[in-house]
Amino acid sequence: MQRVLITPKWMRKAVPRFFQYLILIIASILIFVPIVILMFGSVKTTGQMYSRPYDIPNPPQWDNIINILTTPAFWGMMKNSLIVMISTTTGTVIICAMVAFVLARLEFRGKNFIFNLFTLGLMFPINVAILPVYFVLRQITQMGIPLINTLIGVILVQIAFQLSGNILILKGFFTAVPTELQDAAYIDGCNNFDFFWRIMLPLVKPSLAAVAALVMIVSWNDLLVPLIVLNSNTLWTLPLGTMQFQGQYGQDLALISAFVMLSSIPTIVFYFFAEKQIVAGLTAGAVKG
Amino acid sequence: MQSFPTSPNVSKNPRPPLLSRKTKDGLGIALFLAPALILFVLFLIYPIIRSVYYSTFNWNGLGPATKYIGINNYIKILSDKVFMQAVQNVLVIIVCSLAIQLPLAMLLAVLVGRDLPGRGIFRTIFFLPYVLSEVNAAIMWMLLFNANPQRGLINGVLVALGLPAVAWLADMRVVLFAIFITLTWKYFGFHMLLYLTGLQNIPTEIEEAARMDGANAFQNFFYITLPLLSSPIRTSVYMSVLGSIQQFIVVWIMTGGGPVNASETMATYMYRFGFVRFQLGYGSAVTIIMFILCVIFSLIYQQLTKKPDYLTGL
């Protein structure tokens, strides 16, 4: 008799576990609904979209997808987005690593001032700053250096607004490298910059990857900067093209779905490969705080 | 120029303040800082100053700004009903985020927990919307919010349940709610991730000890887990409020701030005046007001929580 009364641990846990999974699965389904509807829509005709919008497409209609994939404009946007993303990411990682190293590892006059200056940037996000930034781009363009309607204008602004956050993240990583290493390097005859290139950078490589993954996402998804900088449609990036496409073909729900689907795929693929880095980058400082 | 010691004195000071061996390293430091400082001054500091200047002019961007009007732009903005509506909408989004979105993120983080088999999959799923672009998220939800129950899934479900269809994006009373749902879908994963990482840093022993002392699951959560998560919560509240103040893309794409300004935010208001109507002086003044709000909030918040959240680097 007594043995029956002792419920095994797994049974005591089974009921809460069941509800735990139930809620999590419902939440997962809710997360997926917009994405699945979009996927269905992308392989339907607009007629099907109007008559049976949320059925499983049967048979799938690939016309819209093929149409978009055979449009040079789509690949042009893809190319522009890639150019911007790669340049912004490379620039941000290199520039931020240099500043973070100097702030974390060297002593010099005005260090606190510079640190505080960069933290000020966190209070001035790009969405707030966009109009003043536009003035400056215009002013520089009028001075003869074309930044309006060029990808380089987009890249420079994106880098500028990525600085503050990433300098702080990387500074944390650089500070965490043990000082003994630094002492040993100097005794072996390294100067500051040997130390930076040969020892520090290889050591914080995973952190650089985390920052890079984060910047790639932000740059790839950015709409606002391309929106105010780029006029000619040959320079549009994917999000800007998506917005214009939506404005133009807003009524053609199937075509829009196909376009949004195709422009989401690179992000989703990248996310599945780089999730670890993205998560590491995002939570880098949050836990330490 | 600062002088540098010839070699670091390791034995006296475990972390020598001056590590450079040659004076030329001073130049090296300058070179390392230069690219960042140039971009930062050019695209953040200088524009702020420039904007303060322009905000005192009635200027349409054609030719130089000459019509100096002092603080009239600011007076006009603060007495504009539409701007006040925008401020109110932002406040509604902030309150809803703090009262609904963040607790929801916390609930899911606790459910995903530390040792649930398959937790990695759930984390991946919940975080997915965050990496999608705001444009794409907005368009996906526009499809779902389509007013016609034959076309929009949400109204389709409502009608199937015998409820009336709602003109989500065209009805002044519900449009902000529709926007908020979209924002929640897009951003709760970020907050959940912060909490989840925080949870992983709490040793399980603490909760086990409390359980042995007779604490039930709720007591355990409210008296043990929650206080230990104060750091990620602080960060997430900060990010949520700052994000709401500058909310732009999702609203601009889904409604353009309409209908009749019902979903206007400060950023859409600024964009409309600055870039659509080209009232650059007026737009600059809106920018400065938003900037001041961000700074005031940051300073007060850091004072209140006594921890510099900007150090989290997020």
From TrEMBL, chain A:
Question: Which spans are transmembrane here?
Answer: 21-43, 82-106, 113-137, 253-274
Superkingdom, natural source: Bacteria
Q: What is one cellular component GO term in this UniProt entry?
A: plasma membrane
Please verify whether the record's keywords include Magnesium. Answer: no
**A biological process term (GO) from this entry:** transmembrane transport
Keywords carried by this UniProt record: ATP-binding, Cell membrane, Membrane, Nucleotide-binding, Transmembrane, Transmembrane helix, Transport
Principal location listed in the UniProt entry: membrane
Q: Where in the cell is it found?
A: Cell membrane
* Domain (ABC transmembrane type-1) ranges: 78-274
Its membrane topology is listed as: Multi-pass membrane protein
PANTHER family cross-referenced by the UniProt entry: ABC TRANSPORTER PERMEASE PROTEIN MG189-RELATED, ABC TRANSPORTER PERMEASE PROTEIN MG189-RELATED-RELATED
Which family is annotated?
Belongs to the binding-protein-dependent transport system permease family.
Q: What is this protein called?
A: Thiamine ABC transporter ATP-binding protein
User: What's the source species for this entry?
Assistant: Leptolinea tardivitalis
UniProtKB/TrEMBL annotation, chain B:
Quote the subcellular location field of this record.
Cell membrane
What are the residue boundaries of the ABC transmembrane type-1 domain, all occurrences included?
Answer: 87-301
Where do the TM regions start and end?
27-49, 90-113, 125-145, 152-170, 176-196, 237-260, 280-301
Classify the main location: membrane
Question: What do the Gene Ontology cellular component annotations say?
Answer: plasma membrane
Biological process, per Gene Ontology: transmembrane transport
The record ties this protein, via PROSITE patterns, to:
ABC_TM1
**What is the topology of this protein in the membrane according to its UniProt annotation?**
Multi-pass membrane protein
Q: Keyword set for this entry?
A: Cell membrane, Membrane, Transmembrane, Transmembrane helix, Transport
Q: Which Gene3D superfamilies match?
A: MetI-like (1.10.3720.10)
Please report a single Pfam family linked to this protein: BPD_transp_1
Concerning its family, UniProt says: Belongs to the binding-protein-dependent transport system permease family.
Q: What is this protein called?
A: Sugar ABC transporter permease
According to its UniProt entry, this protein's organism is Leptolinea tardivitalis
